[in-house]
Amino acid sequence: MYTFSDNLIKTLAEARKIAVLTGAGISAESGVATFRDPNGLWAKFRPEELASMDGFLKNPLLVWEWYQARREVIDRVKPNPGHTTLVAMQDWYEECGGSFTLITQNVDRLHQQAGSRDVLELHGNIIENYCSRCKKPHEYRYTADTDVKEPPRCGYCGGMIRPAVVWFGEMLPVDALEAAQDAASECEVFFSIGTSAEVYPAAGLPIEAKRAGAMFIEVNPNQTAITRYADVVIAAPSGEALPVLFEKVRAWQA
Ligand code: BJW
Ligand code: ZN
Question: CA 88, 194, 53, 140 torsion: positive or negative?
Fold first, then answer.
């Protein structure tokens, strides 16, 4: 089983300002593929072919079908113990009078499905859609029985409808990014969970937190671009490690 140092458990039990950044790895144990792992979503395609406006304009059908296939998976999976432990942590820290900010790069909404509140979505979500030309929201929602094989068209301007995710070269939602940067620079402990930390500006948040004096904890079975900056590395799947870790924090001196 996992062993955690007394210093780590004590710091977590006494801390009152926590910030957490999650990536695709936290949903892996729910059955959602990550991007950059060997069997990941990008094993067959170059990221910019699928996750960019240029890619969408060049091959709308390929990109739309790729998102529909991912929606099909996300529609039927459930949050795992990694997600639910973050809900329990939010409850506990808030009951203790502290703050708990959950920042995610994930578009699958599994944190919200698990019960996390006020999630800061840096890369949008895969559930909603909007017009790629006039930017108006579009009501199309994937359900298992709809069979839309190509991007629907906008009722206002005829533009192609796209998923409400953030592609390469696009700005992140300003409010979510600012709130995430504030949480990173103010927290006492910053967790980076299940992200390769290859994509900016999200990958800069743990470094910003550490620079501002926070303890930086990484939870990831593999090394990442920022492992060398971590104060504590928990090299394990998040759905296994987080419940054990938090149980020990709750039991500290209790
Ligand atoms: C487990 C596990 C288990 C497995 N438990 N762990 C500065 C320097 C260089 C470049 C840039 C820069 N600033 C901006 C850029 C450009 C670009 C960028 O970062 N490029 C890099 C690739 C270098 N960034 C952007 O374009 C961003 N926009 C921007 O900066 O706007 C300003 C601007 C605009 C115009 C001009 C200039 C500036 C936008 C980035 C949007 C990213 N979008 C995507 C696609 C979303 C849509 C979709 O879902 O299809 O978001 S890319 C993709 O990567 C997705 C993810 O959210 C993101 C991060 O991936 P993540 O979550 O880390 O997944 P993986 O697969 O990489 O890692 C999984 C990890 O889990 C692994 O480590 C495993 O080990 C681990 N794992 N099982 C725990 N059980
Ligand atoms: Zn339109």
Answer: negative
Q: Which regions of the chain does DSSP assign to beta strands (E)?
A: 17-22, 99-104, 120-121, 124-131, 137-138, 161-165, 189-193, 215-219, 232-234
The span from the CA of 160 to the CA of 243, in Å, is 43
Atom of ligand 1 nearest to the CA of 238: 5
Q: Tell me, yes or no, whether 7 and 57 share the same domain.
A: no
pLDDT tens digits, 51-88 = 999 999 999 999 999 999 999 999 999 999 999 999 99
243, containing H or E segment: helix 238-251
Sheet holding 137-138, edge to edge: 137-138, 124-131, 161-165
Ligand 1 pocket test, candidate residues 125, 200, 234, most atoms within 8 A of CB: 200
pTM confidence score: 0.97
Domain boundaries, position 158: 33-76+128-165
Residues 152 and 247 in one domain: no
Among 22, 172, 177, CA closest to 90: 22
